[in-house]
Amino acid sequence: MLTERSVLNNIAVVLVHPKYPENIGAAARSAFNMGLTRLIIVRDERPDREAMAKMATHKAVHLIDSMEVYTSLVEALAPFSYIVGTTARRGRQRGMERTPRQIVSEMAGLLPNNHAAFVFGPENCGLANEELKYCHATSAIPTADFSSLNLAQAVAIHCYELYYGLVHEKKDITPAPQAASTFELEGMYEHLEEALVKITFLEEKNHAYWMNNIRRFFGRMQLSSKESNIIRGICRQFMWHQDHSGKDTTP
């Protein structure tokens, strides 16, 4: 029975281009209070340590010192097999948002064998559509008429729901198989996009729209590494036949 705190070790909090080091420290404090110990930021440079440490307090300052810093989101997300993007904005390209509680319930079975990331956008604008395309699900915190929560508050609510749903409730968790990592999936999507352009399925006008829908379609399937490689192999064959159609390939 996999309900112990160890499943929390497979979850990371990812902050994309946070503007204020104090918010990073407050996020670290919230995460550690709820048993999460992996903090990642996407930023061009490491923020001021003292400003972060002051808000983290001495009990969570080790999360600041062990914090991973990347300059690109795709690099930061490479090891993760399930990614949740947090958003307060609605839109056709953003998919169907669920509450943090719904997200935790849906993903519980993945955690014993997979690494998951909760991704939070900048304080002033949140995650862009280009960043949300890497996410398997989007989470929106239910609020009354005014939906503006600051970064640390959003992190705290999600971390609480993770701790409550995975540890406090002590549910039996049936482990799901290991899924393909983001690194593997992005390679597959690149191959797939190239093949679909070559056979003129993707045209310039609706290119991004259809690729986002294709990503959501495969994202719901939770492909394994083997399955993502099979799709890449099919794409390579498509492109080979497209390049050699009408040519004499007799040795």
3D structure, described in words:
Helices cover 46% and strands 12% of the residues. With 251 residues, it is an alpha/beta fold. A seven-stranded parallel β-sheet has the order 3-2-1-6-4-7-5. Helix 1 (21-33) runs parallel beside helix 6, helix 4 (100-107) crosses helix 6 (151-168) and helix 7 runs parallel beside helix 9 (225-244). The protein is globular.
Properties at a glance:
46% helix; 251 residues; 7 strands; Alpha/beta knot; 7-stranded parallel β-sheet; 12% strand; alpha/beta; 9 helices; Helicase, Ruva Protein, domain 3; 2 domains
Q: How many beta strands in the DSSP annotation?
A: 7
At CATH's second level, what is the architecture of the largest domain? 3-Layer(aba) Sandwich
CATH fold-level assignment of the largest domain = Alpha/beta knot
Shape designation? globular
Uncertain runs with pLDDT below 50, 5 residues or more? none
Q: Please tally the helical runs, counting DSSP H or I stretches of 4 or more residues.
A: 9
- Distance from first to last alpha carbon: 59 Å
Briefly characterize the structure.
The chain is α/β, with parallel strands linked by helices. It is built from 9 helices and 7 strands; from the N terminus they run βαβαβαββαβαβαααα. The protein folds into 2 domains: 5-168, SPOUT methyltransferase, trefoil knot domain (Alpha/beta knot, 3-Layer(aba) Sandwich), CATH 3.40.1280.10; 182-244, Helicase, Ruva Protein, domain 3.
